[in-house]
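Listing S7. Sequence submitted for prediction.
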Amino acid sequence: MNYIGSKYSLLSFLQKTIDTVTNLKDNSDYIFADLFAGTGVVGSLYRRKGYKVISNDIQYYSYVLNKHYIANSNPSDNELLKHLNNLDGIKGFVYNNYCEGSGSERNYFTDDNGMKCDAIRTELEKLYNNGEIGEENYFYFLASLINSIDKYANTASVYGAFLKKIKKSANKEFKLELLPVISGKKGKVYNTDINKLIKQISGDILYLDPPYNARQYCTNYHVLETIAKYDNPTLYGKTGLRNYEKQKSKFCSKRTVVSAFEDLIKNSHFKYIFLSYNNEGLMSLDTIKEIMSTYGTYIQYTQEYRRFKADKEENRNISADSTVEYLHCLEKEI
């Protein structure tokens, strides 16, 4: 997924730095926590490396993705995939609220793709509730649905707005594709407030990748949240936002970010803590250094990288093509 803040392009930098600082060996009984997990690219990497991964994110669609990447070991079920792809579309919540043909005046998906998404989502819920598929398969196919439908969204990458005209990629016929299954130890996946969770867990490496600015993920990915939950929420406004009061991150507010970050570091029971943050974030580099240095030995590494952009079909005014990623490292005195 083309995801804001994704560390996919920075994985080699992160792995090299973390491995150098910790000198921990792969395939041992080490615990790696990825607590702003997003689409799970970092946690997935460390599951492949043999770590037991703890994953968390306040967004439910992220929880679903990571329930597959971090906690699933089931092989792909091609018969179920074929069954779901052969379903006829139905006029469910996605069609009625995110497709223009329903009269919603929202243009997130074509009518046919919205109805196909509804059919698959409804069938998955029915199969799970009837006991015809287990929890791992349920989350496997639901994660695959979220990942697949995103490729057909008629947006400029995020769901803060839809495009007036259907773009080329959104006009293709929707097809469910399965995500890869990652081999490795099964981890634990949470969907809760990180500052509460941190007091209940412990391990060897804690990786933190919080939001850097005031953009709330709950508004940028609200459509995926609704498809994941399929809870028939009341929507409001032109873009069809769901109520997100309980999903606002303290790390997206200049007023609360520093105290939330200090509380997180103070209550962390991990020997090594790594924070990804860039040079344009709400917290200053000096503030981060000051807080982390209080709790042990601190050092930082940097890597220049290309900033997140929307689809090439859309024009955006961006001041610079690249930014600097800082990986702040703390060996904590526990």
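Caption to Listing S7: primary sequence and predicted structure tokens for the chain studied. The longest strand covers residues 296-306. The mean pLDDT is 94.
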